[in-house]
Amino acid sequence: MTATRQLLVPAAAKVERTLRTFISLAAAWGAALVPIGDALAATTPSQAPLYNAVPGAKPNLMFVLDNSGSMDEESQEGYPVRDNCKDGSSEGGRDGGRDGGRDGGDNCEDKFGWYAMRSSNINTQYYNPSITYAARVDSKGTPKTNPTFFVDNQSSNDTSPNHQSGTTAGSRKFTYVQCKDANCVIATNRSVTTISAPSTTDTVALPGGHRRTDCGLNATRCTTEQERQNIANWYEWYRSRTLAVSTALGLAMQSYDNKFRVGYVQYNNNGDDALGIVSGVNYFRDEAAANGKKWKTSFYDWIYGINPKGGTPSHNALVLAANYYAGTATKSITSSPLSSPWKNDPNDLKSGELSCRRAYSIVLSDGAWNAKTAQGIDTRYTASSASINFDGKPSASATAFSYDPKGAPGYDSTDAIKKLNARNTYIPYGDGATSSNGFADLTARYFWHTDFSKTLPNDVPPWAASTTPRSGRT
Questions:
Q1: CB 8 within 8 A of CB 471
Q2: Could you tell me the pLDDT band of residue 73, with boundaries at 50, 70 and 90?
Q3: CA gap 222, 205 in Å, rounded
Q4: CA–CA distance, 217 with 444 (Å, rounded to integer)
Q5: Residue 26: pLDDT band by 50, 70, 90 thresholds?
Q6: How distant is the alpha carbon of residue 255 from its chain centre?
Q7: How many CB atoms lie within 10 A of CB 18?
Q8: In 10 A of CB 72, how many CB atoms?
Q9: Which residues, in sequence order, are CB contacts of 473 under 8 Å at separation 6+?
C-alpha cells in the first residue's frame, strides 16, 4: 500500500469574502477534492470524482458545515437594498420620495427597492428564472414532495419581500424582476414577470442563455404551471443559504454510495459553539435490516434538519475535525460512540489499519468567522485582529516549515503555471494572496503539518509541486 492520511481543508480566503452561491455545488462539488499541487486540476474542475486508487482503502470525508444564524439569511453577504418603494414615491417617508421613502437615505431611489428586492441580479439568492430548482431527494434518490403550491410576494418589509406560501391556489401573485447591468432604476432596464394563481397566461418567456431543463430541450418558454412549480421549489428548498447548501449537498452526494466513509461536524449546537463532532466516519450506505446502520439516511436527516443558530466559530469547527482524525476526540454532540477513522471497519477496533487511507475535510460556510473562537489550541493560530504567519519546526518535526500567505518565490511570476505552483507550495487554499486573520495559518499548522498517527508509516505518495509537510506528515 502506498499512501498516508491526508487532510485537505479549503480555508476561508478573507474576512470580507461574500457569500458563495451554493446551488452550483451539486454539479461541481467534486472539485473540492482536487489535489492542490496539481496545476491543471487547480485551474480546471474535475469532471469525475477522485476515487482512491487503492482497493479497500476508501477515503475518509468529513463535512464541516456552518450552521450559524447568518446561514438563515435569504440574501447574499453585502446585500444593499432597503425600503419598500415601487416607483420612487414615498411609502411612509416625509419628503415625497426624494430619499426613496426612508428619511435621510437614498438606497431605494437608487435601486428602486421593490423591484431590486425581487431581482436575482441584485439579490443572487432570490428566484432566478434561468435556473431549474430541482427537488430535494431522500437517501434513496427519490424526489421529495413539495408541500408548497404557490408563493405570494407582493408585500415587503424594510429589506426583502414578505412571502406567503400556501397549499392551494387562491388569489396570489409572485413577481420576479430581471435588471440589466444590475440597474433597476431605469424602466427600460427592467423585465417584470408576474405569475398568478389562478393563472392568467399559458406560457412564460425564458431569459436568453437560460439553463432550464424542466421546460423541454432548447425551450424559449415554460408553461405557467412549470414556472409555478419552479418558484415553489426555490421557496421550499433554496431561498436561504442553509436551504440551498443542504439541498445541493443532498443532490451532490446521492450517487456516492460506498465510495467514501463519511462523517460530519457542525459549527454550533443549540446556538453554542459545538464541543464535539456530530458523527464519525461510516460507510456511506444503508445496510438492509441493520438497526443503527442506516448511515446514508442519517446523513440526509442531518443536512435537512440543520437549524441555523449561533455564531461562526470556523476555527473551532476545524479543530473538532482535526481532533477526531487525530484520535483525541472523546465524544460526539449526540453522545453516540465515535467510530475510528483509520480502522478497516470504522466500528471495529480490532479490524486493523491501512497506511494508504486518505482523509479530507470539506468546509461549507457563508463567509466571515468570529474572532477568538478556537478552543484548546495555541492562540497564535486563532482568528484575531491580524494575520500571524507560522515559521519553524512544528510538532517537533526535524524539517523546517515556512509558511507565507503570498506563496513561495515565483508567486508573482507572469508564467501562469510557475505562479500557480509557487502559490500552492505554502497555501492550502488559494485566495489571491490575501490570507488574513489566521484561518490559513491554522490549517497549515494543525492539518497540513501534523502527523495524525505515530504508529503507521507515511506512505501517501507526494503530489506534484508538494513539499515535505504535505507529502509525508499529514
A1: no
A2: very high
A3: 7
A4: 47
A5: very low
A6: 19
A7: 13
A8: 16
A9: 395, 397, 399, 449, 450, 451, 458
Q: Is 209 exposed, middle or buried (0-12, 13-18, 19+ CB in 10 A)?
A: exposed
> Residues 109, 88: contact at Cβ < 8 Å?
yes
Rounded CA-CA distance 236/259 in Å is 30
Q: Does residue 107 contact residue 82 with C-beta atoms inside 8 Å?
A: yes
Spatial distance between the Cα atoms of 275 and 457, rounded to a whole number of angstroms: 31
Confidence check: pLDDT of 430 > 70: no
In single-letter form, the type of residue at position 241 comes to R
Q: With contact defined as beta carbons under 8 Å apart, do 356 and 54 qualify? A: yes
Per-residue pLDDT, 74: 95
Q: Is the dihedral of CA 251, 267, 360, 327 positive or negative?
A: negative
Average pLDDT, integer, range 164-178 = 87
The pTM for the full model equals 0.76
d(CA 143, CA 26): 15
The residue type found at 13 is A
